[in-house]
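Entry for zinc ion complex. Fields follow.
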Amino acid sequence: MVKEAAAPSTEQTSPNDRTLSAVGNIAVKCPKCREILYGRDLEKNQKVCPRCSHHFRINARERIKLLVDEGSFVEIDADIIPTDPLHFVVSPPNQAKSIDYASKLVEERKKADQNEAIISGYATIDGKPIALAVMDFFFMGGSMGSVVGEKITRAIELAMKQRIPMLIVSTSGGARMQEGIFSLMQMAKISAALARLGELALPYFSLLTDPTTGGVSASFAFQGDVILAEPGALICFTGPRVIEGFMHIKVPENTINSDFALQHGMIDAVVHRRELHQTLARLLHMYPTITK
Ligand SMILES: [Zn+2]
């Protein structure tokens, strides 16, 4: 039996990352080089540490803003709301109160001010149209529930209808276990939609960001015609904490990140955040020659 990735990651999220959405004058310590940074300066630098280039996690709206042409993004399917098909309840040991998924969803939707762990739509990059689906790690660790899968599939279908390329930005702790098989089925559904996109010779660009794990890395994240990743991003199927917990071995450092994936031919390029827009623009200018 395959084991899912490290738990969707509010646990993996450092306090620094979680405060970043509300920075400004707040001082933030870089988790890599320990430099104390002003939130405002970090914002100006696209949330990349100016000293060591550590790429902080950013939410889906921030990601879209830095990738596409200003003012060009049109969101679709924003009103699709997740449900609780299994009436899932967890009773954690040593805790008196059980946690039900339905309440958790209400809380997450309110906190994130969006309905799910993904934002989808269409936009232009350097004037070239593209459909895109951008995952959001700050909503339940970017876990892939039914709505996430449905919104990605619909964005791919939009790309097919409009005959435009597709971009998926992944960041995820894996499939959403609270939705069981409904969550796992999304892997096949999205993969089938991408296969249809491929039959039309429309390109699919995949961008892996920190972290891309579990059912997401095991399906659409690695099915791109071109696969890019941000520097230092955790990229794996099973996260190091789970491996260490089950196997009682220490996972060697730097063996589950984007550089390692590049060295071993799993991805095409590691691209600094400030160069992503330009890189995608170049790809979009190259690919139309082969579209039908
Ligand atoms: Zn740093």
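NOTE: Confidence is low (pLDDT under 50) at residues 1-22.
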